[in-house]
């Protein structure tokens, strides 16, 4: 007796201490997030049924005892397919329990309440079995100890632990690191304790395995266990609600694919050996007690073995009652009760603790009833497993609705409620009531578990289907089904026109003052202005309000209050104002120093980065409303961010709207001047929720620089022409001087002489004019208005200019007299001069150099053809690069063709090169043909 | 994801198909634990999948 008391006290103290450290010390909190701890915490699945009852189950049902663990092992293999996507759904929508998930999926408070009822009814018996496992085995160790007394003490201890370390937060999404550590430690302890008993069985009482019975129902038990691994409240709570945050949770979950089955394997390994030894020691005894029977062969081991069993029971009781208390408070009490006058945060915690105590009281009374209807003393074993499997069958009634989370979008809320009701009734009559001696239907559980399970599930699924046909899923339900598969955003139709609209929606539920207060708090948390009416801001505000309230009062209360017809959902005048305000305060307190503030910091930092970018950036939402607009873009466009953000793209000025709608270069009108810009839009919107980033680059300085380069190139060309010009001007000048000298000497002015003088002067004038025209056209302005230009005239002028410096034959073959282009004539002359200069450089004397023009339907071509040295492909590929030249140092700058290419691009044309080494080169300028007026 | 589905189908066939009679007969307890170990190994292989 003393050893049992001391051992129990020490174990409980250790458990409480570990839980306390997990809640208060950062290092222990970090430990609770390790994958191995996560996998061990999933070991909450193994209760006293597995610990004590597996031996009895093996005696009565053969290897079916292993099926109870093979089911969860199969479920673990579904982690990437089911658990990880489900984790995302739960996190995205801040859902904590199965009832939350169902209520969210089917947008129904009734579904949440019904889910809670099914789980509660199914689990009371299971809880009672845990109490029974602890109490009756304690009586084995301490003869004379009343199971009722030990059961009551166990229940009280569990109420204390769960109240302190489980039901201690108002929000159901809150993680409990201390609880996780305690549950993991309990799993480790029961694995070691059962392993120690197995070793004793092998070494101290070695015996052959007795003949095992056949395994009827193996498949049913495996499938039931597989389903239970997802739908048991304790498994759901440890797997999803207590999963570490962020990527650590996903990593831990992935590791559990093998780690959790390994824990189950280790727990099952000693069972056959304990059964063999127990049968040898006590052939007619209750096999559910063989663990203690075998442990009794070694002094002190009995207490350790019993503590292992108590660990198994207590872990299940703590987590199951915690999960159920969350569901009962959220889905039963919150929608029914009026708002409390005092602090609701404390009220919620208090209510959860009361529910935990109530559940354990019910479990205790059910344990008493079980003792009276089926005393352990009359059993040969298997009783624990029997109750457990019946409980699994009850929980499995949630399967149709659970599948609705992953598909079956036509499954409706009324169908699910109908199905759950029908399935629960069948389960009660066929499986549940017979457990407490009320045999309504003559199906024996040992033989008919599978039949009864599939019967109840069949009725459930059929009614769900019929109900969904009779009352089809609403738009909200379909939308919720979609939200379970991917993140969906509200359409603007679900949004009010301004923030006051939220106040209006909440007023029937909260009252005007509190509604305004709630909206103001959410607005402050998001750093929004009160006048902000942008759809994106309203959407964020609504999601914030809904998500915060969802974690506290369930998804339906928050959804109904913020979305549609709150009056219909909350008839009977249930003022929620005080409650929700207190909840918000609790959220604000919980938020301090935690993840959300880190997220806000990161968001503010990214915002600063956006502001500081030297290029204009805007983000367009999926519906083409402006979500983001940085300061550089304001300077570039003259549109202030405050006025633009949230407005649809169509509401912007025409030129701006057109520019932001397509990639490429555009001109924007800003304060009476034209600004050239280049627009680049993201093509891949993965991870952007359908948003598109648009980068706007100011090309003004680039264009100015290009114009300067062109001007410099022209001046350099004129410099090269200087010698030729002197020669060309010198000849007529000599003629003038000769005629003038003759006139002076003879004193005779004849019409022939005057005509000769005028001819020579006109020739000089033509040369000077063409040169001045070429030079003056080289102003640095890049935005000179376009004019109609004849490429034939351009070719003529360019050939004449080049001939000033090059005494070479240049064939001119104009064939586009009627075709004109729009552009700057001087710049186009510069292009042809540059092309001709290069052609002449590359072509030896006597070889042909020609300028050809040709008109096409939509374009006009000008080609400079030479029969020079030609270029290799790798040289031709770089001829338009700035500073690329094959000429000797000092003979060329490498800018000529680059400038030519830039000018042609600026005219909307193309400049291409076609060259064959040894045969010559053809440079082709293709410009769009100007449309004739009218 | 593909590997996870393949692994689950393999495991389900191993545990639930009529072939289970090979290791669920009353005299096959050791073999049953071998099958259980195979599930653990399959889980480990599935967890190593980087393509998700």
Description:
The complex is a heterodimer of chains A (934) and B (52). Chain A is 65% helix and 8% strand. Chain A has a five-stranded antiparallel β-sheet. In chain A, strands 7-9-10-12-11 form a five-stranded mixed β-sheet. In chain A, strand 3 and strand 4 form a beta hairpin. Chain A is elongated. In chain B, 73% of the residues lie in helices and 0% in strands. In chain B, helix 1 runs antiparallel to helix 3. The N and C termini of chain B lie close together (5 Å). In chain B, 31% of the residues are buried. Chains A and B meet through helix 5, helix 6, helix 11 and helix 13 of A and helix 1 and helix 3 of B.
Helical run tally of chain B: 3
Mean pLDDT of chain B: 87
| Biggest sheet strand line-up of chain A | 2-1-5-4-3
Number of helices of chain A: 38
Report how far the terminal alpha carbons of chain A are from each other: 111 Å
Tell me the greatest interface: A-B, 35 and 29 residues
Q: Please give the share of residues in helix of chain B.
A: over 70%
- Quaternary structure state of the chains depicted: heterodimer
Specify the structural class of chain B. Answer: mainly alpha
> How many E-type strands of chain A?
12
Overall pLDDT confidence of chain A: 81
């Amino acid at each position: 007796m003393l050893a049992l008391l001391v051992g129990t006290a020490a174990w409980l103290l250790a458990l409480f201490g570990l839980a306390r450290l997990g809640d208060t010390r950062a290092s222990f909190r970090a430990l609770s997030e390790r994958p191995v701890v996560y996998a061990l915490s999933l070991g909450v699945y193994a209760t006293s049924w597995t610990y004590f009852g597996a031996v009895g189950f093996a005696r009565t049902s053969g290897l079916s005892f292993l099926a109870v663990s093979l089911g969860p092992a199969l479920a673990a293999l579904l982690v990437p397919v089911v658990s990880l996507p489900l984790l995302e759904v739960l996190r995205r929508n801040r859902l904590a329990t199965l009832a939350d998930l169902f209520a969210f999926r089917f947008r129904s408070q009734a579904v949440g309440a019904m889910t809670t009822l099914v789980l509660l009814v199914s689990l009371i018996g299971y809880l009672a079995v845990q109490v029974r496992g602890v109490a009756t085995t304690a009586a084995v160790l301490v003869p004379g100890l009343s199971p009722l007394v030990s059961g009551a003490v166990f229940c009280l201890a569990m109420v204390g632990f769960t109240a302190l370390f489980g039901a201690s937060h108002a929000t159901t999404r809150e993680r409990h690191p201390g609880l996780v550590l305690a549950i993991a430690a309990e799993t480790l302890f029961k694995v070691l304790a059962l392993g120690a008993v197995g070793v004793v069985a092998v070494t101290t009482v070695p015996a052959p395995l007795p003949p095992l019975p056949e395994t009827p129902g193996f498949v049913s038990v495996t499938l039931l266990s597989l389903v239970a691994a997802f739908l048991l409240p304790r498994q759901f709570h440890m797997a999803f609600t207590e999963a570490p945050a962020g990527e650590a949770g996903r990593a831990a979950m992935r590791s559990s694919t093998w780690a959790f089955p390994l824990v189950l394997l280790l727990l099952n390994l000693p069972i056959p050996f304990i059964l063999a030894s127990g049968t040898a020691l006590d052939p007619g005894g209750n096999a559910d007690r063989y663990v203690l029977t075998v442990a009794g062969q070694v002094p002190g081991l009995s207490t350790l073995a019993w503590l292992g069993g108590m660990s198994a029971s207590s872990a299940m009781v703590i987590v199951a009652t915690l999960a159920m208390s969350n569901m009962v408070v959220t889905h039963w009490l919150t929608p029914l009760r009026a708002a409390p006058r005092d602090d609701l945060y404390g009220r919620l915690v208090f209510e959860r603790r009361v529910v935990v105590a109530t559940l354990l009281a019910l479990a205790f009374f059910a344990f008493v009833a079980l003792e009276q209807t089926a005393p352990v003393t009359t059993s040969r074993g298997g009783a624990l497993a029997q109750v457990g499997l019946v409980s699994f069958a009850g929980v499995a009634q949630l399967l149709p609705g659970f599948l609705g989370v992953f598909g079956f979008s036509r499954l409706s809320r009324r169908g699910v409620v109908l199905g759950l009701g029908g399935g629960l009734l069948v389960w009660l009559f066929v499986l549940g009531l017979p457990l407490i001696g009320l045999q309504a239907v003559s199906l024996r559980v040992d033989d008919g578990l599978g039949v009864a399970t599939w019967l109840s599930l069949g009725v459930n699924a059929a009614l769900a289907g019929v109900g969904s046909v009779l009352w089809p899923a609403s738009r909200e339900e379909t939308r919720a089904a979609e939200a379970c598969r991917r993140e969906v955003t509200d359409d603007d139709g679900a949004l009010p026109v301004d923030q006051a609209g939220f106040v209006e929606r909440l007023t029937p539920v909260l009252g005007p003052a509190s509604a305004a207060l709630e909206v103001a708090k959410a607005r402050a948390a998001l750093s929004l202005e009160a006048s902000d009416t942008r759809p994106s801001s309203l959407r964020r505000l609504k999601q914030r309000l809904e998500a915060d309230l969802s974690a506290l009062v369930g998804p339906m209360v928050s959804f109904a209050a913020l979305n549609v017809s709150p009056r219909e959902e909350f008839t009977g005048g249930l003022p929620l104002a005080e409650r929700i305000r207190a909840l918000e305060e609790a959220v604000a307190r919980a938020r301090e120093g935690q993840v959300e503030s880190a997220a806000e910091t990161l968001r503010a930092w990214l915002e600063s980065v956006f502001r500081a970018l030297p290029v204009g950036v805007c983000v367009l939402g999926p519906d083409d409303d402006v979500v983001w607009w940085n300061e550089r873009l304001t300077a570039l466009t003259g549109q202030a961010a405050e006025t633009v953000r949230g407005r649809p793209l169509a509401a912007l000025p025409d030129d701006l709207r057109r520019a932001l709608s397509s990639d490429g270069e555009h001109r924007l009108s800003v304060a009476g001047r034209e600004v050239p810009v280049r627009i680049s839009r993201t093509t891949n919107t993965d991870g952007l929720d359908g948003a598109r980033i648009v980068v706007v680059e100011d090309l003004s300085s680039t264009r100015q620089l290009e114009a300067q380069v062109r001007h410099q190139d022209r001046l350099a060309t004129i410099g090269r022409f200087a010698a030729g010009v002197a020669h060309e001007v010198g000849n007529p000048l000599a003629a003038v001087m000769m005629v003038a000298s003759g006139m002076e000497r003879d004193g005779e002015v004849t019409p022939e002489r005057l005509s000769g003088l005028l001819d020579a002067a006109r020739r000089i004038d033509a040369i000077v004019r063409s040169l001045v025209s070429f030079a003056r056209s080289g102003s640095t302005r890049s935005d000179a208005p376009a004019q109609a230009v004849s490429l034939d005239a351009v070719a003529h002028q360019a050939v004449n200019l080049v001939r000033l410096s090059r005494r070479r034959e240049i064939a001119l073959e104009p064939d586009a007299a009627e075709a004109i282009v729009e552009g700057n004539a001087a710049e186009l002359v510069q292009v042809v001069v540059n092309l001709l200069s290069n052609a002449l450089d590359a072509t030896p004397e006597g070889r042909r150099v020609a300028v050809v023009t040709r008109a096409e339907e939509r374009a006009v071509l000008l080609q400079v053809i030479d029969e020079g040295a030609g270029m290799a492909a790798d040289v031709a590929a770089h001829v338009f690069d700035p500073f690329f030249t094959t000429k000797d140092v000092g003979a060329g700058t490498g800018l000529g063709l680059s400038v030519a290419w830039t000018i042609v691009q600026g005219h909307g044309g193309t400049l291409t090169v076609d060259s064959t080494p040894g045969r010559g080169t053809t440079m082709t300028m293709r410009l769009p043909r100007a449309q004739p007026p009218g | 994801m593909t590997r996870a589905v393949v692994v689950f189908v393999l495991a389900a066939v191993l545990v639930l198909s009529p072939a289970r009679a090979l290791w669920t007969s009353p005299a096959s307890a050791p073999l049953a634990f071998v099958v259980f170990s195979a599930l653990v190994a399959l889980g480990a292989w599935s967890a190593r999948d980087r393509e998700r």
